[in-house]
Every structure is written in C-alpha cells, then in structure tokens.
Design a protein that fits this description.
Helix content: 25-40%
Number of strands: 11
Largest sheet: 7 strands, mixed
C-alpha cells in the first residue's frame, strides 16, 4: 500500500512500504519533512517530469558502506599517490549538485530537477547537506585563491571534475548522487568521504540503491532494523 501524504508533517511506518520500497506520495520537500524522512531511512525519488508530487521510498533491505570497509583497489591507490587531484568538503555544493543533475537531466526518469536542487541547497545552507569535491590541478600544479579556473580551463586554477553530495545527520551520511568528469572521479570522492568519516567517527554511508560500482567499493546489504540502530546511534 502506498500512502497519500498531506500538509501535516508525518510518514507512515516505513515497514509498510511496498516490496520495491515505495511508501508514500505527496507532502513537500521542506527541510523539516526531509529531515524527518532521513531519520527513518526514507528518501524522495521520483521523475520530476512525470510526477506532480514527491514519491517517498524506504527499501526493506539497505545497501550501505561502512567507512572502515571501503575497498580501495591497487589502481585507485596509484591514482591517489599521483597527487593529480585535490579534495574538499562543502567548497562548491552548488557546483556538485548541478553537475549531478546535468549528467542525467535528459535521461528518461531523471529525478534531479529544480525542486530537488532547491530543497537540498536549502538543506546545505542549514548545515545538513554535504558535498565532496574532486579538483584537477592545472598543468602547472597551481590554483587561484578562490579555486576557480579561467575561461579556457587552464592558467592558475583548478577544475571541478568529480564529487558527490548527501545528507549528514549524526554519524550517518545518506548519499544522494555523484558525478565524474574524469575516470574514477566519483570513486575518489567516495573514498575521500569514507576516510574523512573514519577520522571523525562516522558510522555508515547509506547508498540507497545497489549498483555494481558501489558494490565494488565495499557496499553490502543489511536489514532495516540493523540500519535503524546504526543511524539512530
């Protein structure tokens, strides 16, 4: 059964979601509703061209990565050791979310439209949404003070070539989307996130949906009950 939400701030019991995880339709993308959703493992996922209202999901099994279980292949270690790329947190949230949207915008079922961008940008402004940036240094290995490149992408700047964003509540990170403009750009962002969470005592990276990419990085399924214990701790 899929529940119809109204203007009140509530969600049905996530365990009542359909087999594919679909739980509810409606409501809004306000900061309060999004935070309530994530605290219960619920997230919005819908084609912005095909739906007038948000659609909310809560899969019964959760595909997650534990920061200390992140898999770093030999090729990725080699890539990091070359020091061709630098990494940051929250230096360019808008650049990350717009790149994530741009790469998939024309695809059928694209979900990262203007309403989602606006909602998560507000979450970021309030300190709940986080971005990871991967920067490619120019050929001289220099960068401007503000981290921007000039018009031809050369000169004394750096270029945003990969990243990811998601929601951070407590010790949990709820991943939303990632992008790459260079080979392994999103993998580097995920590894940097996992290493940062290891240093800060982060407990779990919620991947939402299984992909071969995320499985190769150490992703695995856990039960919803175990998941809730982890994100509530």
């Amino acid at each position: 059964m899929v529940y119809q939400l109204d203007d009140d701030l509530w969600f049905p019991d996530p365990r009542l979601a359909d087999e594919d995880g679909c739980l509810a339709v409606g409501g809004d993308l306000s900061t309060d509703r999004l935070l309530l959703a994530y605290q219960h493992g619920i997230f919005p996922w819908f084609s912005f061209r095909d739906n007038d209202e948000p659609v909310w999901y809560c899969p019964h099994e959760r595909f997650v990565i534990f920061p200390d279980e992140i898999h770093i292949s030999h090729s990725m270690r080699t890539l990091f050791n070359k020091k061709k790329y630098t990494f940051s947190l929250n230096q360019d949230f808008e650049g990350v979310i717009h790149n994530c949207s741009k790469l998939r915008y024309d695809e059928e079922g694209a979900w990262l439209g203007e309403d989602i961008i606006k909602a998560y940008t507000e979450l970021h402004r309030q300190g709940f949404a986080v971005s990871v940036e991967v920067w490619e240094m120019n050929e001289n290995g220099n960068e401007n003070e503000n981290g921007n490149e000039n018009e031809n992408g050369k000169g004394n700047g750096k270029r945003l070539v990969g990243g990811l964003y998601g929601v951070n509540i407590g010790s949990a990170f709820f991943g939303e989307s990632m992008f790459s403009l260079v080979p392994s750009g999103s993998k580097m962002a995920l590894i940097f996130l996992a290493k940062t969470m290891q240093e800060l005592g982060g407990s779990i990276i919620d991947c939402q949906l299984k992909t071969a990419h995320l499985e190769s990085m150490g992703g695995r399924y856990i039960s919803y009950d175990e998941y809730m214990k982890l994100i509530s701790s």
